[in-house]
């Protein structure tokens, strides 16, 4: 059965020292330990994480995919690389560099990889230019953060980017980053355990309440980590909308629940009951296999959570590849001979 993993991250093997080029710091580069491992370092010396060659080598990725039965990976950059805080022209150069690397892998292995581009979201004009270039280069969509320099995705300057994605047929993958409250909860890895789920809900609520999803009904948008805390707190969100419309319904009069059929989610929810709940909430046709490969918060054996459920074959096929194909606007024969 075809397996498409919509949530994987990749980096170039060699990343320039952008600080030397731009004259200021804050950027990530790799310090290689040996041929198979490296450290992601910010140019002030702050260590982000250790990685292995599966984070940059397409051949290593294919070997590991073959070992666990994954046929296709959707490639996107590591969110820390977004660099939304950089000067717009510099951010655009970083985005082009990252996207060119992904495009090269997809061109070499078109039946194994699909590309999502990153954009310099801090400047809409530059973001639109890179979006159009990415479309021409064969990308299926884009990956963006849940906020842009702590601005919510509901801000007017981002609407034309979403509108262009709808017009161009580009899928949108929203991934948490720069978690709100991060400075206040450094201990116990809480930004990743608490902040990330909240960030996804922040993005979803912003897009619903602002009317972005109402105005762009053909926008194909997918949220990482099963939508974070949004599905589990939808009842509270809907109740708040109903009892305080003066605060929640100021830009969109429709209930948040209306938009459940407008959104995709990945399956990375870590427990059976949560996945069962998500399927009951939105349906299997809006949930795509996602693993966060190759990082530790991901699913070690792709699809194992889906396989653990007592599902009929049609639902399992939808979760393993059907929803992904719909979100990406691709066909099964793009990846396998039929």
Distance between the termini: 13 Å
Task: Please outline the major beta sheet.
Answer: 8 strands, parallel
| H/E series | EHEEEHEHEHEEEHEHHEHHEHEHH
Mean pLDDT: 96
CATH architecture: Alpha-Beta Barrel
Kindly identify the CATH topology: TIM Barrel
Global morphology = globular
Helical coverage, percent range: 40-55%
Number of strands: 13
CATH class (first level) name = Alpha Beta
Gyration radius, rounded: 19 Å
Plain-language structure description:
This protein is an alpha/beta fold. It has a single domain, classed as TIM Barrel (Alpha-Beta Barrel), CATH 3.20.20.140. It is built from twelve helices and 13 strands. It has an eight-stranded parallel sheet. A hairpin with a 4-residue loop joins strand 3 and strand 4. It is globular. The two termini are about 15 Å apart.
Please give a handful of descriptors for the protein shown.
globular; 338 residues; alpha/beta; eight-stranded parallel β-sheet; 13 strands; three-stranded antiparallel β-sheet; TIM Barrel
Describe the structure concisely for a colleague.
The chain has helices at 18-22, 58-68, 88-108, 124-136, 156-168, 190-209, 212-215, 230-243, 245-248, 272-282, 304-307, 313-328, and strands at residues 4-9, 28-34, 37-42, 47-52, 72-76, 113-117, 141-145, 147-148, 151-152, 171-175, 221-223, 263-266, 287-288.
